[in-house]
Amino acid sequence: MPPENTGHSVLPTSLCGYSAMLIHEMTEDECRAELGRTDFGRLACVRDGDPYIVPVNFSYDGQYLYGITTLGQKVEWMRNNPLVCLEIDARPDPDHWMSVLVFGRYEEIPDTPASQPLRAHALEVLQKRTAWWEPACVPNGENGRRPPIFYRIEIEQMSGRRGMPSAI
Hints:
CATH class: Mainly Beta
Helix content: 10-25%
Distance between the termini: 19 Å
Shape: elongated
CATH topology: Pnp Oxidase, Chain A
Structural class: alpha+beta
Low-confidence stretches: 10-14
Largest sheet: 9 strands, antiparallel
Number of helices: 3
Strand content: 35-45%
Mean pLDDT: 87
Number of domains: 1
């Protein structure tokens, strides 16, 4: 008789000589809590079937992920295809790790009078993070300083897993 599905996976001790590992499927609340504690991840986008992934700083307000950047490949690709994926992770030691995937939709927040309340909110959320303005507002070599682009990601789906030693 197969074991009961508890939302956990256990790797046997004999597998590759490693100790047993418990893999926990995180709840949406656990994923959201990790997003609230984290301000750095990897943002993936796709254009014409080609993937592109970049490290990004972000802030989370409980509903949206907010970021600031400048015009470049990432923005051009997200304008073309707003479906994106953000990954965050942590591995404080080899026996403990966490990973969360967020699937969502890119939305640029233009510098227009109608968007000022949303830009003000984005700025308020971003300012809770240290060095929130980097790298968007740092001169970029030969290109100099470019105007910042505020954006947010509407979260459509998320999932996460956490690994830890099993008590078995």
